[in-house]
């Protein structure tokens, strides 16, 4: 199958491209390197020993989109490209609405014009907001508390309306929980441009002595050890979920949670990381981070039933692979 991957050099995109190539798909990437680096292209080749096409640019560039769909018979699009920093979205909401929404609308227009009828969209568990009960199922009510999450929820609405008007399209929405880790080769991993937002990149910065200690935001939550609980999932498992979604083309809109189904607290992740890497991670308890929820983890059974997918890698694998990548890419 010939698959266009938008944002294909990013953390999730690059790992997904590797899995797609491993499954003998033809891959075309479009990326503007707004949150990734050019050398990822070479690393993907090194891991897979396979070729793929690459177009540098922004998917808001209608001329470039038309060129890609004219030069390639794209069967399916996996749409990762988008800004994803919760904090930045609060201070620069229009940047997020413009980039995440407009790019998706232009992409759908280009797909329709090219008669490309299959899209897999990168959504996020953040659309659930603060769940009333756990684990979270796909039919839970949606409620977002920041512009980044709201763009994901709005794009899901756009896709549902687009599906009503174009019933022969297959639209798969994948809601990720907390992707961490790296490819076991250590060649690709989580390497955000600028200041990181998420927990694991900060743990890594402490482990590589770039930071003296980790800030733990809040130890007064109603959880097992009073720190935040999240559903961490290995990025390679997540990538495999996308490959499975491409194999399951069904008309209409289909929504799946991609999570491990297990909740680990911040303190638990820190202590597992220390055990796996034999590195002490000093930390300081700070006040809660604005917008954080206490606990969030998935009920991933629908993805297992319909996509024949479930997360297989352990939390220890996630810590080991994340640290190996950091060591290799100092
Ligand atoms: C996890 C836990 C923090 C940093 C967000 C997005 C989600 C997805 C993943 C894109 C929380 C605590 C964090 C730190 C800490 N992104 N923490 N010290 O907020 O669950 O999810 O990123 O798709 O959509 O919402 O992830 O890693 O930022 O935080 O104590 O330095 O770690 O308070 O409890 P989050 P996170």
What does this structure look like?
The chain is α/β, with parallel strands linked by helices and 330 residues long. It has a seven-stranded parallel beta sheet, sandwiched between helices. Strands 12-9-14 form a three-stranded mixed beta sheet. α1 (11-22) links the parallel β1 and β2. The protein has a domain at 2-180 and 233-259 and 299-311: 3-Layer(aba) Sandwich (Rossmann fold), CATH 3.40.50. The chain contains eleven helices and 14 strands. It is globular and about 55 Å long. The protein has helices at 11-22, 39-48, 62-71, 86-91, 93-113, 147-165, 199-207, 235-247, 266-277, 301-307, 315-328; strands at residues 2-6, 26-31, 53-56, 76-79, 118-124, 170-176, 178-180, 214-217, 229-230, 232-234, 252-258, 264-265, 283-286, 295-296. The site of UDP-4-deoxy-4-formamido-beta-L-arabinopyranose has 18 residues, from α7 and β8.
């Amino acid at each position: 199958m010939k698959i266009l991957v938008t944002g294909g050099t990013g953390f999730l995109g690059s790992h997904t491209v590797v899995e797609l190539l491993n499954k003998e798909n033809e891959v075309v990437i479009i990326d503007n390197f707004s949150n990734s680096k050019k050398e990822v292209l070479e690393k993907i080749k090194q891991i897979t020993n396979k070729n793929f096409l690459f177009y540098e640019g922004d998917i808001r560039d209608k001329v470039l989109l038309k060129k890609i769909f004219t030069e390639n018979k794209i069967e399916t699009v996996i749409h990762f490209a988008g800004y994803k920093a919760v904090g930045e979205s609060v201070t620069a909401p229009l940047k997020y609405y413009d980039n995440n929404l407009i790019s998706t609308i232009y992409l759908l227009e280009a797909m329709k014009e090219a008669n490309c009828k299959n899209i897999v969209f990168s959504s996020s568990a953040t659309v659930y907001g603060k769940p009333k009960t756990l684990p979270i199922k796909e039919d839970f009510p949606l409620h977002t508390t920041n512009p980044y999450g709201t763009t994901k929820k709005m794009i899901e609405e756009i896709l549902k309306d687009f599906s009503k008007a174009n019933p022969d399209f297959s639209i798969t929405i994948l809601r990720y929980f907390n992707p961490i880790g790296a490819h076991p080769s250590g060649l690709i991993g989580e390497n955000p441009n600028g200041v990181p937002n998420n927990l694991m990149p900060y743990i890594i910065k402490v482990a590589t002595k770039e930071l003296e200690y980790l800030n733990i935001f809040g130890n007064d939550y109603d959880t097992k050890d009073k720190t935040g609980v999240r559903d961490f999932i290995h990025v390679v498992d997540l990538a495999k979920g996308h490959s499975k979604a491409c194999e399951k083309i069904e008309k209409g809109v289909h929504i799946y949670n991609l999570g491990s189904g297990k909740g680990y607290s911040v303190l638990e992740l820190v202590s597992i990381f220390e055990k796996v890497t034999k590195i002490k991670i000093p930390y300081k308890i700070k006040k809660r981070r604005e917008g954080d929820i206490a606990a969030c983890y998935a009920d991933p059974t629908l993805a297992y039933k319909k996509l024949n997918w479930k997360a297989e890698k352990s939390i220890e694998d996630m810590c080991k692979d994340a640290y190996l990548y950091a060591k290799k890419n100092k």
